[in-house]
Amino acid sequence: MSRERNLAKIAESTFSKLDKVHSEIFTMTYGAIVTTLVEDLDNVDEVNAQLDKMGHNIGERLVDELLAKTGLNPQPDMRYVMEIVTRVGFRIYLGITPTLSNWNADSTTVTLSFRDSALSDWVELPHTLDDLSYFQLVCGVIRGALEMLGMKVKCTITADKLKGAQTTDILVELQEVMQAKFYN
Amino acid sequence: MSYSFVIVSKNDSPIFEYVLNGDASESGHLNQFIIHAALDCVDEAQASTTQWFLRCVDRFNDKSIFAYITAGLTRFMLLAEPTSSTSIKSEDAIRSFFLDINECYLRHVMNPFYVEGQAISSDSFREKVANVARKYLL
Amino acid sequence: MEKTLKKGRPDIAMSSFSFLFAEMLNYFHSRASSSDELEGRLQAAGERLGLKVLELMTYREKANRKDTLESFLSFISNNVWRMLFGRPADGLQRIPADNSYMILESVPITNRYIEAGQLNPATFITGIIIGMLRAAGFNNPVETHVWKKDESTNETTNVYLVKSK
């Protein structure tokens, strides 16, 4: 079986055993978090930084659960890990499977793309918040998760569906392979 | 037929206005006044039913004012005024108009950046209202 | 007009919500100078959802206006609870003595997997109820309590106490 189909099967079988929620409570809670931050903090850069930090915390805990529930135990191989991120991680936790494209020659950078998700249903950015990065949380999650797996990455949103693009694109760039924080 | 459509917030301020086939100037001002004055009739109509569509709540000369209330007590008001060419649309058409507007409005409310009572300035909302108006009221 | 308005997406893992909720709690905790303030912010966050939940649920269920508090609370503890949390609340009871109501829930999703110390994370849900009541014109105060299910056991239940105005 191809690696992709195997991961998809693992995702489905793991998901079937987990407690689930309807997406609405998740969508609305995230909306409440973002709007609270916008009101609390002085500028949009601070909001984006806070979302990234929250995402990072979530990513660390999420990958712990993901590995425990799936039995997966990947080496810090960027290609394989990003397949797990999209086909298993996103599938279970956000209900979507982003695509991976534009791998560079030595497999250290890739673009992850998705359209809609439970994170951004019904969201319309006001013009006063042009620089708000609604999906910054996702960047943090990817960063935090990959760090636990021994890979230090940089995540940049290069296209944002809430700002008119066809898809939301996140450029993931490997910066350093470290000692994995656990397993291995 | 010419129509003035107004969305009135829970605290009685107009947060959205749209005119179909009418002229926005003088009769426009009068129509806004008439719609606002009809709010009392909306309250009365509301007290006697648990339906959201309140039908025709008031009349002024040849103008009829229809109302619909949302779960969160926002009022949709439609003032219908016959012109020389056509007669008034059926109540069913107006009800369908309100139901579709409710859907547009709901999407707007679900936006986390929506602020209750604030004027609706979204272009996409206005475009959707225009489409719904054309569909049921022309 | 739009699929997710009418029907909603497929379910996601509950821990997605739990992780997100825990981060929200952490954030409020880091900025609150007292436990009262923390509780207040958590409740206020829930209140933001009230109008949205009310309008969405009414639309989806094609429900009519609830003109009594009891019928409205029944709508909340049944229909709304099912959409938000996947199942109806454990119960809705009236307290005749002061005409207040209790919505009962053993384990709110806000309290699963979360160690929150003194604060009851279900205050977020209390906020949602308050927001809904206010949006529909009821304006009753609501409090979060944890009560013993009965004298003999140590089993507890969360109580959202809807007080008369």
UniProtKB/TrEMBL annotation, chain A:
<comment type="subunit">
    <text>Homodimer.</text>
</comment>
<keyword id="KW-0256">Endoplasmic reticulum</keyword>
<dbReference type="GO" id="GO:0030008">
    <property type="term" value="C:TRAPP complex"/>
</dbReference>
<dbReference type="GO" id="GO:0048193">
    <property type="term" value="P:Golgi vesicle transport"/>
</dbReference>
<protein>
    <recommendedName>
        <fullName>Trafficking protein particle complex subunit</fullName>
    </recommendedName>
</protein>
<keyword id="KW-0333">Golgi apparatus</keyword>
<dbReference type="GO" id="GO:0005794">
    <property type="term" value="C:Golgi apparatus"/>
</dbReference>
<comment type="function">
    <text>May play a role in vesicular transport from endoplasmic reticulum to Golgi.</text>
</comment>
<keyword id="KW-0813">Transport</keyword>
<dbReference type="InterPro" id="IPR016721">
    <property type="entry name" value="Bet3"/>
</dbReference>
<dbReference type="Pfam" id="PF04051">
    <property type="entry name" value="TRAPP"/>
</dbReference>
<dbReference type="InterPro" id="IPR007194">
    <property type="entry name" value="TRAPP_component"/>
</dbReference>
<keyword id="KW-0931">ER-Golgi transport</keyword>
<comment type="similarity">
    <text>Belongs to the TRAPP small subunits family. BET3 subfamily.</text>
</comment>
<dbReference type="GO" id="GO:0005783">
    <property type="term" value="C:endoplasmic reticulum"/>
</dbReference>
TrEMBL record, chain B:
<dbReference type="GO" id="GO:0005737">
    <property type="term" value="C:cytoplasm"/>
</dbReference>
<dbReference type="InterPro" id="IPR006722">
    <property type="entry name" value="Sedlin"/>
</dbReference>
<dbReference type="Pfam" id="PF04628">
    <property type="entry name" value="Sedlin_N"/>
</dbReference>
<dbReference type="GO" id="GO:0006888">
    <property type="term" value="P:endoplasmic reticulum to Golgi vesicle-mediated transport"/>
</dbReference>
<protein>
    <submittedName>
        <fullName>Sedlin</fullName>
    </submittedName>
</protein>
<dbReference type="InterPro" id="IPR011012">
    <property type="entry name" value="Longin-like_dom_sf"/>
</dbReference>
Automatic annotation (TrEMBL), chain C:
<dbReference type="InterPro" id="IPR024096">
    <property type="entry name" value="NO_sig/Golgi_transp_ligand-bd"/>
</dbReference>
<keyword id="KW-0333">Golgi apparatus</keyword>
<dbReference type="GO" id="GO:1990071">
    <property type="term" value="C:TRAPPII protein complex"/>
</dbReference>
<keyword id="KW-0931">ER-Golgi transport</keyword>
<dbReference type="InterPro" id="IPR007194">
    <property type="entry name" value="TRAPP_component"/>
</dbReference>
<dbReference type="GO" id="GO:0005783">
    <property type="term" value="C:endoplasmic reticulum"/>
</dbReference>
<dbReference type="GO" id="GO:1990070">
    <property type="term" value="C:TRAPPI protein complex"/>
</dbReference>
<keyword id="KW-0813">Transport</keyword>
<dbReference type="Pfam" id="PF04051">
    <property type="entry name" value="TRAPP"/>
</dbReference>
<dbReference type="GO" id="GO:0006888">
    <property type="term" value="P:endoplasmic reticulum to Golgi vesicle-mediated transport"/>
</dbReference>
<comment type="subunit">
    <text>Part of the multisubunit TRAPP (transport protein particle) complex.</text>
</comment>
<keyword id="KW-0256">Endoplasmic reticulum</keyword>
<dbReference type="InterPro" id="IPR016696">
    <property type="entry name" value="TRAPP-I_su5"/>
</dbReference>
<dbReference type="GO" id="GO:1990072">
    <property type="term" value="C:TRAPPIII protein complex"/>
</dbReference>
<protein>
    <recommendedName>
        <fullName>Trafficking protein particle complex subunit</fullName>
    </recommendedName>
</protein>
